[in-house]
Amino acid sequence: MPHIDIDWLGDHVELPEGLGAEQLAADLVRVGLEEEAIHTADVTGPLVVGRVVEMTPEPQKNGKTINWCLVDVGTHNADGRPAGEGGEPRGIVCGAHNFAPGDLVVVALPGAVLPGPFPIASRKTYGHVSDGMICSAKELGLGQDHAGIIVLERYGYTAGAGYDLAPGTDAVALLGLGDEVLEINVTPDRGYCFSYRGVAREYAHSTGATFTDRGLPTGAEPAATPDGFPVLVEDAAPLHGAVGCDRFVTRVVRGIDPQAPTPAWMQRRLTRSGMRPISLAVDVTNYVMLDLGQPLHAYDLAQVAAPVVVRRAAPGERLTTLDDVDRALDPEDLLITDSPDGAHAARVLGIAGVMGGASSEVTAATTDVLVEAAHFDPVTVARSSRRHKLSSEAAKRFERGVDPRLPAVAAQRVVDLLVELAGGTADPAVSDLDTTRAPAAVRLPLHEAERLVGVPYTPEQITGTLEAIGCTVSSEVSSEVSNGTTSGSAAVEVVPPTWRPDLTEPADLVEEIARIVGYDHIPSVLPAAPGGRGLTSEQRARRSVARALAEAGFVETLSYPFVNPAEHDALRLPLDDPRRRAVRLVNPLADDKPEMRTNVLTTLLETVRRNVGRGLTDLALFEIGLVTRPVPGAPAAPTLPGGVRPSPADLEALRAAVPPQPRHVAGVLTGRSEPAGWWGEGRAADWTDALAAARLVAERAGVGLDVAADRDHAPWHPGRCARLSTPDGAVVGHAGELHPKVVETLGLPPRSVAFELDLDAVVSAAGDVPVQAVPVSAFPAAKEDLAFVVADDLPVGDLWAAIVDGAGDLLEDLALFDVFSGPQIGPDKTSFAFSLRLRAPDRTLSADDVRAVRAEVVASAETRVGAQLRG
């Protein structure tokens, strides 16, 4: 996001005295530029100007030579008097050698804190007590130069320029280190605000301050000459109907001093605006880019052969960019190349609008510079930037739209600064390839603003506001205004300014009117709720499920539905498992998570891991969300052209290509399900808790689930996993204890448990049957306890089902209250004890009724699962 130096902003717009970052943020937010942060100085404490009085080199045993310096810091000297009045200078050890006695430097005194933070104190070193530090630009956060300290005269600070450089003067104010910097958030449609020119314009709209547009041609820009550095654009088959480059300006500056330093004021402005000073030629192009919004590039003229060719990449081409990364180029990439000569073959000089190449970059030996100022297609730049994962400052601006009238103006500014600061000479040869077109006019009905916003804007407000933002507004096409009311046929023709490529529709213009006049003029009107039938049965079921899980002690979480393919390995999914078949995103939000999840448990377990890593081990979390389950052999989504409405056939093809996205619910429990305390040790969560939660989901959805053992379904334990099915046999989920290897891989507490259900399938199985009230019997219940001995590998769910069938309609409740195994009942046997509550709706059960139910239950258990009644 852009960083705004208030001092720099004042070059473009009149600012009130003492304007602070907080007030600037309040002014800009009124026109839609939101405050992101206010950055305060990283330098605090005594930082002063010092004059070197003496400097004694002292070689050290390690081969290094340090300088023992006596520095006059005015009233900050040891006795509070300047050296000129007999004061005693401070002694400071310094390892730099780029200064001499008499030079003015910047001194951090004990008590100062430099960026890092790096506190300064008197300390003994190299046999001396160093009473402060002589600072470099990097140590003050003003640049990357750490080789030598700041000599103020070389950085453009001279007494003749109006600076107070007396020893002891506050250097924080002198260097602008005490000023605040405002960071703002710019929406993608307002790329012109990635410049001081654009932000100043918005400040003027907000406050009425006088704005001076420094991006307009002044007449000082020379016209193209026949001998200008030649440029060819070879983009015969442009993508999406737009030529990749419609303007390309080149200028040449010869004889620059490659060792000329970037002046301190420019370094300070660049640093405070979030850019790192590099070298004078590069800094000048960055400075003009930040100032006007036009990205520029400087080439070493000796490394470029005419003509420059702008073209698409050929198959197999590669480029080493300025960040020293070798990149394979795509045929859609727009390139800047040169032509072959006797010294070398044709080379790729850079990816247009994104980043230059290393072969032609400006170096410490460059004396002749070729300046490029071009206008590139936003879509082409955006695609190349994302394809190569290069979000450069130039790409940020080009992909949002740059003013096509800026290249000549910006190039002239660069030339002027290189001549002034580097001692260069401007070459009279100028190249300006210009095929840009004027913005298309937009017809705006005057009633449209009131129709869309609800505010009765007057024709004067509409035209005045549009003209204020730079539009050209014609006279009314049809002037039908009576009694202050504009008729529906009155309209104006509006030509947007070149720096606003986002203004293409009447609604865009209306948005600008609402923004500039003020959002606070728009009344808050609560729309009347339309009549309807309320929530659907599916919505009611989902809300009921979420509420039931929360009431059962679970906490609902939300996670992004993007996963890493390696997470399937962590869950030990078989290679042929359908859950490994996932939709892969072409442009994922994160490179390490390119796939859409196929189950909710994958992302929910990541949330559990994060909480466990922060010391929370007793967890009960659940999530309800969509999963994506592609179908093998499904048609691929068609590639549609931009800028036109897809046909019905295209839309139908898109719908057919969208994979199923059912809604799942998953839950995880770790640690204790019941806390420990004075009442006891609590209870650890086990597989029965996961199964109970899954059955609770089904109960609230209105369907019963059949439970069966499943010994081979990752990521669950092979002996503690339940398969859950609807009455018609459809498997809708699983519940149980997670596999020990999964728990170990993910770093979860031992014996963590989980469940996951296809909630859509569960709700669908319940159908749209209204809730039926169950009559409450006024007759007393009869209780019966039964214990059965069965083979220890029999799923208890099978025994449960046999008891339910045997008890019939009189069974009101069934509960398992004891499980026992031991030599008393024989080897490989387990005893399950159940409590049955029986009740009839129309009578009190007799002893014969209870005995009959008991007999039926025992017979059913013996017949179906071989259970024997335990005596």
Could you walk me through the main structural features you see in this protein, from its secondary elements to its overall organization?
- With about 850 residues, the protein is an alpha+beta fold.
- The chain folds into six domains: about 5-40 and about 180-205, Phenylalanyl-tRNA Synthetase, Chain B, domain 1 (2-Layer Sandwich), CATH 3.30.56.10; about 45-175, Nucleic acid-binding proteins (OB fold (Dihydrolipoamide Acetyltransferase, E2P), Beta Barrel), CATH 2.40.50; about 230-435, Phenylalanyl-trna Synthetase, Chain B, domain 3 (Phenylalanyl-tRNA Synthetase, Chain B, domain 3, 3-Layer(bba) Sandwich); about 440-520, Phenylalanyl-tRNA Synthetase, Chain B, domain 1, CATH 3.30.56.10; about 535-640 and about 645-765, BirA Bifunctional Protein, domain 2 (2-Layer Sandwich); about 780-870, Ferrodoxin-fold anticodon-binding domain (Alpha-Beta Plaits, 2-Layer Sandwich).
- It contains 21 helices and 43 strands.
- Strands 29-32-33-39-38-37-36 form a seven-stranded mixed β-sheet, sandwiched between helices.
- α13 (about 535-550) runs antiparallel to α17 and α20 runs antiparallel to α21 (about 845-865).
